[in-house]
Design goal:
The chain contains 4 helices and 3 strands. It is 55% helix and 12% strand. It has a 3-stranded antiparallel sheet, with no helix packed on it. A hairpin with a 2-residue loop joins strand 1 and strand 2. The protein is an alpha+beta fold.
Length: 106
């Protein structure tokens, strides 16, 4: 029951500060966070970054990445093309996508 309460808090967190507070609270109660929880927090960071950069849909297939804004009917392009993902591991891909979104001027 308590675990689901924290998962819900993570999924509803809309700022980095809230995610940090939730993460700290979980560490205080349970100790080191297991990898799946860290991944959930990382995924929520990606979601926050996507929405704050003005986009609302993300599709990653192998090395290609589509980032779309349905309100303005536009894709994120870098040098005229869709961004590419170099990483192979899922967690590294999440970090790379967050980096693309945070460094791209939208």
């Amino acid at each position: 029951q308590l675990r689901y309460k924290f998962y819900r808090k993570i999924s509803l967190a809309d700022t980095e500060i809230k995610l940090k507070e939730i993460s700290d609270e979980m560490k205080d109660r349970f100790g080191a966070l297991p990898e799946p929880v860290k991944n959930l927090i990382l995924y929520q960071r990606l979601k926050q970054q996507l929405l704050s950069s003005g986009y609302d849909k993300l599709t990653a297939k192998e090395s290609s990445l589509e980032i779309y804004d349905s309100k303005k009917n536009r894709y994120l392009l870098i040098n005229g093309s869709a961004p590419k993902i170099k990483s192979q591991k899922p967690k590294e891909k999440l970090h790379e996508i967050i980096c693309i979104l945070s460094t791209k001027q939208v």
